[in-house]
Amino acid sequence: MFSLNYCSYRNYLLLILLCSIFIYYNSLRQTKNFDVTTEISNSNRIIYAVRTGSRFYQKRLVYLLQTWIPLVNKDTFFITDKLLPNISQDHTILTEKACGSDAHSMSNLCCKTAHDFLVFHHYISEYNWFCHFDDDQYVNVNKLNEYLSTLDSNKPYYIGRTSWPNALQRSKEPFPSPFWFATLGAGVCLSKQTIHLLKPYTQTTSEFVDGCIRENYHDDIYLGFLLSAYLNITLTKTDRFHSHLEKSFYSNKQTFLRTFTNQITFGFRTPDRYPYFLPQFYRSHLDPYRMRTLHCLLYTQINECQTKIHQHLFNSTK
Length: 318
Fold this sequence. Notes:
Blueprint lengths: L8 H21 L16 E6 L5 H9 L10 E5 L11 E3 L1 H4 L6 H17 L6 E6 L2 E3 L1 H8 L9 E3 L27 E4 H11 L2 H11 L3 H12 L5 E2 L9 H5 L1 H7 L5 E3 L23 H8 L4 H14 L2
Parallel strand pairs: 1-2, 1-4, 2-3, 6-8
Antiparallel strand pairs: 4-7, 5-9, 6-7
Helix pairs in contact: 1-12, 4-6, 4-7, 11-12
């Protein structure tokens, strides 16, 4: 569908035309307004732990709340320092008392990640998959559900994207062996069986934090080490998870437009770690990362998105 060359504005406009045709085709098959939440399967339950902080609410989290989170709202929990607007306290896990002031330090990150596992263990009987995401990520929840549905959650899975091209070399005893770890910034998913096996090492925040400090590893590295060394669970690598560190992900417009509908996570950061070449469906201050635009291109059947696409198409052809 997206094999055309998008270097010119004319072909760029064709993307919007194709989306509009898709909307029209869908509307012919529908007898009532489409509820996008019906696309999310209930048979493969996924819990979403979103790590954030009060200082990032307006800068990052608000765009997640306007896009993918409403699709899985009842299954999303927020790991944050303080209570946040428009988020249920029942789905908020406060960390300031245990972790201190929000900071991008090893101890604070490990402490907040340890709270992921408190949520995961509490709800282990209700879910098959347990996923961590940061507040600068868009999650294509349909594709995540589709992907995880191909795997058996009763087997030990550790799924994510590597930060480095090579395994981390370790010489320290008692586990002097290299291991792979997944960057939490691209999203990490663990099966129910993996959460069960991790319980002796993660049932309290201090157990996970003490392990980070003892090994001098940040949270994602320590998790990879813990799974590899203690539980013999290897990383299942996927190139469909993406963090804001991947500048190359957005550098090739043609490749992005050809493949974005099949990607699972997208990391965002200005000035160049976001799809700045997408059409601007919203004013820039309302959609600085084009996250809302991306959401509309993935879920063209949403009424608001249909309106935005039609408006953009009309304005572009004036």
